[in-house]
Amino acid sequence: MTTTSSPRRALSLTVPTVLLTTVATALVATPAHAHTPARIPLPPLTALPTGAAAAALAVRNAPAELAPATAYTVQDGDTLWDIAQAHGTSVAALYAANGLGSDSIIYPGQVLSLGGTAPAPTSAVAESATPAPAADTTGPGYDVVAGDTLWSIAHEHGITLAELYAANSLSPDSIIYPGQTLRFTAPALAPAPAAVAPAPQPAPDTYTAPQVVLDDVQTANAQHIIRVGRELGVSDRGIAIALATAMVESGLVNTPSGDRDSIGLFQQRPSTGWGTPEQIADADYAIRAFYLGTPHTNGLLDIPGWEGLGFSEAAQDVQISAFPARYGLWEPQADGWLAALG
């Protein structure tokens, strides 16, 4: 998704570098209307033992007198969660043992400590990380399972996404993983120091929407978005929202990559449940997913009362972007493209 910002792996020996986490989230509202077009099914994927899992099988068959491993060399296809499960530890323990954070990336050949003192950094410049505060174990908690999203957890336990974010120091861009424990109430905070310097404020978003004359590629993609919208019975307002969203996210170009693992016209992310990379790279699939959602994400037509929301608000409820106001800046031009092409 835009500048942020919505867990499966087949056996392979040539998988590229993997992000730390394997389960994605989509943070949008639940469908409430009576008639919603069918969702797009995702093909089942089966996780087979590779990397850390294969290493664990090897250790399981080793002679009993061998001491347990204290370090592990990352293999193709590994995630921190795989490594933690294979060696009887937790992702949090791997973070602490190796000076990692939730946005760190591991790579094949990297040596990770499985406990105790972390190995020396393998890069020329050692990265430092501030240890996360200890979790509050006095309040209610929830252990994440495969398929969970932050929205589904909040909805199931009767709290808002904002409350779940605050209780766990998360943001709309955060990724959760199976086995992670989430709190429903924030831990008590120690009294603030008598004098605290104000936190630096983020720079204002200076994004503008220039007047654009669509080229041939952009025109073809706009016509595709309009054609699918008409086929699904989407109103002109919904189609204009889709056009503006695609312009903000990709410039109305079916790009093969973007921020982190974002792909395609709407910069949808496999890690947040939008589909496989191959699916999202298919413009027709991506357009239908924006309108209809997927088994793990909500599309525009899933948002209760979306036609009564503001232009940017409706788009944001699908995209979960760090810059939600940008979509509305394109509303006049999106209306013009629809009038000319639709």
Number of strands: 4
Categorize the overall geometry.
globular
Classify the helix fraction into a percent range. Answer: 25-40%
Strand order of the largest sheet: 1-2
Largest sheet: 2 strands, antiparallel
**CATH architecture assignment name of the domain at 216-341:** Orthogonal Bundle
Reading the helices and strands in chain order gives HEHHEEHHEHHHHHHH
Low confidence ranges: 2-36, 42-49, 62-67, 117-138
CATH topology of the domain at 216-341: Lysozyme
Strand content: under 5%
Mean pLDDT: 76
Number of helices: 12
Q: Report the top-level CATH class of the domain at 216-341.
A: Mainly Alpha
Q: Work out the radius of gyration.
A: 22 Å
Name the structural class: mainly alpha
Gap between N and C termini: 26 Å
Describe this structure in words.
- With 342 residues, the protein is mainly α.
- Among the domains are: 141-183, Roll (Membrane-bound Lytic Murein Transglycosylase D, Chain A), CATH 3.10.350; 216-341, Lysozyme.
- Helices cover 32% and strands 4% of the residues.
- The protein has helices spanning 52-60, 80-86, 91-98, 150-156, 161-168, 216-232, 236-250, 277-280, 283-292, 311-319, 326-329, 331-341, and strands at 71-73, 111-113, 141-143, 181-183.
- It has a two-stranded antiparallel sheet. It has a two-stranded antiparallel sheet with strand order 3-4.
- Helix 1 (52-60) packs parallel to helix 2 (80-86).
- The longest helix has 17 residues, at 216-232.
- Residues 2-36, 42-49, 62-67 and 117-138 have low confidence and may be disordered.
